[in-house]
Amino acid sequence: MSDVHCVGTENTLQQCQYHDGLYSTSNSGSEVGVICKTHDFDPDDNEISIRLQGSSVPNAGRIEVLYAGVWGGINSDGISVKLREAGAPNVGRVEIHYAGKWGTIYSWGWDINDATVVCRQLGYSAASRSGYEFDCSGTVPAWFSTFRCNGQELSLDQCPWEFYCCRPSYFYCANVLCKNKNANTDFQVRLTGSSLPFAGTIEVLYYGVWGGILGKGRVDINVGHVVCHQLGYPGAYQIFDLPVFGLIKGPMWIWKIHCNGNEAEISHCAVTMMDNPNVTLLSYYYRYQIPSNAAGVVCNEGNSTTCSDLNVRLAGSPISNAGRVEVFYPLGWGTIDGRYWRHSWDMNGAHVVCRQLGYPGAVSYGRSKQFGLGSGPVWFSNVRCLGNESNFADCPKDVYGLPNGLLSIIATVLCKLQYQPVALNPCESSPCKNGGQCFRSDSSYLCSCPNGHVGKHCQETKSTTRQGEVTSTYNIYLIVALAVTVALVLFLTTAVVCLIVRNRRVTKNLLRNRSVHVFSNMAYGGASVNNGEEEAASNYNYVHDPGVGQGQEAKDPYHVYAQVPRPLPPLPPQTNINGTT
Fold this sequence. Notes:
Blueprint: E1 2-5, E2 17-19, E3 49-53, E4 62-67, E5 70-73, E6 80-84, E7 91-98, E8 101-106, H1 112-121, E9 127-133, E10 142-145, E11 162-163, E12 173-178, E13 188-192, E14 199-206, E15 209-213, H2 221-230, E16 236-240, E17 252-258, E18 270-273, H3 281-288, E19 296-299, E20 312-315, E21 322-328, E22 333-336, H4 347-356, E23 362-368, E24 378-381, E25 398-402, E26 410-415, E27 437-441, E28 444-448, E29 453-454, E30 460-461, H5 462-513, H6 531-537
Parallel strand pairs: 8-10, 15-17, 22-24
Antiparallel strand pairs: 1-2, 3-4, 4-5, 6-7, 7-8, 7-12, 9-12, 10-11, 13-14, 14-15, 14-19, 16-19, 17-18, 20-21, 21-22, 21-26, 23-26, 24-25, 27-28, 29-30
């Protein structure tokens, strides 16, 4: 049941006008409640029933009043207020002490007049700004709503107000910024949220409270230059219109700022503050209190120069050629916006990243949280690579700087692998026998054999090995003996051949240089010999060597020499023509 409209004279709710429907009960902050009158309640009765409670004696205790049949207490000192959770005493969430507990004010209808009364009640001259704090449910209850102060009251209990009877699961509470008379209104600046002194979220000090500068499309690099100049740096390297270094804890001070870039400090720029009357409450509600719109900057440190290349890597995947794309810029690793409507990540960008990592190219690209979101910010969006760039830094893109966790769609990639021959594991074939353990060594293997086994494959026992060692030793000796015998035979054969050849050469030389004359004809004065001597002399020759002296005989090396000449054979008988001798 919803939108119930009753005249008041109906006996049941069914007689009233209402919408009938089934609604989810997950949001239980919109149910209505009521306090009913008792039968004897008379609102015109001036008699007030009171009682004392909380004491052990009847004449002392806490005063309670009976109203509409319900007993309640009396506020003796008006409405107590305080500011909570701000980091400075003059700014924070407004809390009111009621029914023994501190509670907040529901922010609907909260304006600068209400804030002025709160600040005056706390001792400040006026309020600089009124505003909202997002989702303060779950901390303290919301006691009141719709204060209608005119700004002249001294305390909130002098303003008309409505009691907020319910505690919704999600609501906004009122907060204020009170003007501190002793605070310096000159803008001091600082950088927060980074471990490096030259980078961080820009914060300005205004009325003694640190707050941010609205970034969301309202700051440029010139604003960054001035902020860095005021901090002592030569200029800005990059300006961010989102709090890449973290959310601010204070208010959003500056609504709009315009600098030329050569100013020494931001007070010399054209600045519009949030408490300006032209900044409407509705604009503040929707745009300026959101802490994710605070601007940040990275200053150039001294004379250092920035790198022209951007390092990339793939993360979040169990394989090396796939994962979310991360870029190191400028202070750490971050991701790339992969949302579809930005058209920021495509196959061209994937090819550039894969080639920069040493792969031939990309197989596919993705836009998801498949490989996780990482721990760094979203550095870039609207990436517009052509596909032929050698480094991701060469691709046109927008610097984003969205804090981690605010985006769940990021760029991913799957890169091609270069062909590599499959390296076989030699231990897969279990080459080690008898329980031996195989250890791979490059393309080979080694076997660690158990006790009692040896060999390359642990295939032999130690006893077999000893017998084999004896046999191997005998074989070695036999081979050595055979080798010596063969060598000796070859040596002797060679020596004999050499002697024969040498003798033949000597003989040829002698025959070539000598003249041989044989004298064996008895007609030349040889002496006669007897038959025995003749037979013996038949084996002798006389040889005359011209080179030998007179009266000396040269010996034929192939004959035996004798002094007895060999007789000539007898002449055959002469026969006439007619056949007679």
